[in-house]
Every structure is written in structure tokens, then in C-alpha cells.
Amino acid sequence: MKALKIIGISIGGIFAIGFMGLVILGSIAPETYVYLGHQVPKKYLKEVRALDLLSEDEKIKYFYTDGLVDIKDGMYFVTDRNLVLYCNYWEEPGTIIDFNEITKLEVEYDDSFLNDSMIYVETKSGLEVSFPVSSERGRDKKFVEHIRQKSGIE
């Protein structure tokens, strides 16, 4: 009987620790949706500026990160001037693309909760990049529409 009680307490403790870990991770992890420019947390803006991805007079319109804890693991945003992509796993982590340089834009929309929509971009210089954007709240479509509008790509 005593052994069962010890096993029960041990299992309960493991579940409690796991639950606490998830709560802590949930409190520090970025949201899973695309932020509107004015909603981007200040700590993310500070990181973006430290990486020199945004000029002082440039404004973020839509921002998405697929990084679980660190936004440098993958952040993608559009400003009033550029498409900005950053992933510290890439050979060249930061890519800033002027909207006038974009020649092709394709999108594979995915409305599921688990998968992101994928955006494919080609530039005049031959650069081909792809990146994810969350479909939550329909903001993947707004993100893409902003690129289309600024680049003149239909």
C-alpha cells in the first residue's frame, strides 16, 4: 500500500513538473499568429533593431515568428518598404528585400492550425526564398496582400 502511494505521488509530481514547464514555455513563447505592426512586443522590436533589420523611420506592418523561444530562430515581416526575413539557421541569416526587387510571388495557403502557409518569393537578382506565415486570424492573406500591393505583383 505504501509503495502504491509513493508511485502515485511520483507520477503526480512528474505531471506537475511537466505542466509547470508548459506554463512557463507558454508565457515566454511568441504568439502563434501574425502580429499587426503596432502589436509587436517591444522586446522583439529591440531584437530587430539590434540585428539592424529595420531603419529608424521604417514601420513594421505585419510580423511573424516561428521561433519557439527565440525569435532569431525564424522571423519574417513586412514594412512600409521591405520584406525582411531572418533565420539564424540560414547561411546568411538576414535578408532584406526591397519590394521593387520582387518579380514573383506564390503562396500555398494552409488554413489548418498545425501548419503555416508558405510564401515563395523570387527577385530580379535571382534570389529565391520561401518562408512560413501563420494562417491564424487570416493574417497570412493580409501579409501576402501587403507584399502584392507594395511590389505591384498580381
Sum this structure up briefly.
The chain has 3 helices and 8 strands; from the N terminus they run αβαβββββββα. The protein is an alpha+beta fold and 154 residues long. It folds into 2 domains: 1-30; 35-151, Pleckstrin-homology domain (PH domain)/Phosphotyrosine-binding domain (PTB) (PH-domain like), CATH 2.30.29.
What is the topology?
Blueprint: H1 2-28, E1 35-36, H2 42-50, E2 60-65, E3 75-79, E4 82-86, E5 94-98, E6 102-108, E7 117-123, E8 128-133, H3 139-151
Antiparallel strand pairs: 1-2, 2-3, 3-4, 4-5, 6-7, 7-8
Task: Write a structural description.
- With 154 residues, the protein is α+β, with helices and mostly antiparallel strands.
- The chain is globular.
- It is built from 3 helices and 8 strands, in the order H-E-H-E-E-E-E-E-E-E-H.
- The protein has 2 domains: 1-30; 35-151, Pleckstrin-homology domain (PH domain)/Phosphotyrosine-binding domain (PTB) (PH-domain like, Roll), CATH 2.30.29.
- A 5-stranded antiparallel beta sheet has the order 1-2-3-4-5, with helices on one face.
- The termini are far apart.
- The chain has helices at 2-28, 42-50, 139-151; strands spanning 35-36, 60-65, 75-79, 82-86, 94-98, 102-108, 117-123, 128-133.
Average residue pLDDT: 85
Number of strands: 8
Helix share of residues?
A: 25-40%
Give the count of structural domains.
2
CATH-derived topology of the largest domain? PH-domain like
- Output the strand order for the largest sheet: 1-2-3-4-5
Radius of gyration over C-alpha positions, nearest whole angstrom: 20 Å
Order of helical and strand elements: HEHEEEEEEEH
- Give a quick account of the main beta sheet: strands, pairing sense, barrel closure: 5 strands, antiparallel
Can you tell me the CATH architecture of the largest domain? Roll
- Determine the structural class based on helices, strands and strand pairing: alpha+beta
- Uncertain segments are 18-29
The CATH superfamily label of the largest domain reads Pleckstrin-homology domain (PH domain)/Phosphotyrosine-binding domain (PTB)
Instruction: Report the sheet-strand fraction.
Output: 25-35%
The CATH class of the largest domain: Mainly Beta
Distance between the termini: 72 Å
Number of helices: 3
Looking at the structure, what is the overall shape? globular
